[in-house]
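Worked example 2:
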Amino acid sequence: MFPLIIRLLKVFTLTAKHAGQIKRVRSKNLPNGKALITQIKKDWARASLDNLGVRVKTTGASVSERPILFVGNHVSYLDIPLVMATAPVSFVAKFELSRWPIIGDACRAVGTVFVKRESVESRKLAVQKIGDACLEDGQSICIFPSGTTTVKEDKPWRKGAFEIAKLRGLQIQCFRIKYCPQEIAAFVGDDAFVPHLWRLLKEGSVSAEIEFSHPFTVDVPDEDCSKWQHWCKEILNKD
């Protein structure tokens, strides 16, 4: 029991430690600051996954080092460190996360774009921020078009990421994620964060597979959105 409690607390200490490192690097305005922050984010993600007992398998195309939109399915909060460990990204997240103790501060540190889903004005501002992050700041952004976690992908994706890519002349690189055992890793429905973390730690080990497509240019946002959601859905039915 005690080792599990230590690992549970380590989730938050790792988050606070690396978020603090990123903020210090930003405050110094170093010439190599961007590269340092990218490395800190990867170190943070990998340490977090190791602590949680998540074994990672990466397949598919090489990850783009150019500013790009990463788009994929959303199964769990584990997707965040999983993507961050394998690609140089910041994220788009619901505004509510910004209010979480420790987690909200960490989200701000890594350059998360927060969106109030019920606010049209907030969504418009997010579109502008996402495009500017890629084109002006040279930062890749990860978007989960489902808008929430799911293991079914039974609701159509929001096409906003594909419209942004078309409008701003950005490429997209899709990824698809699957965990085993899926029922332990998935964070859906009425799950609460800390109790779910506890169950995950008690499991001892979870495997995660993330596969990347080749980067592509958006032609017709609606059609591309549907096509790549189907591609992501395939992995959830894969044995």
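Strands lie at 54-60, 69-72, 89-94, 113-115, 140-143, 171-180, 206-212, 216-217. The longest strand covers residues 171-180.
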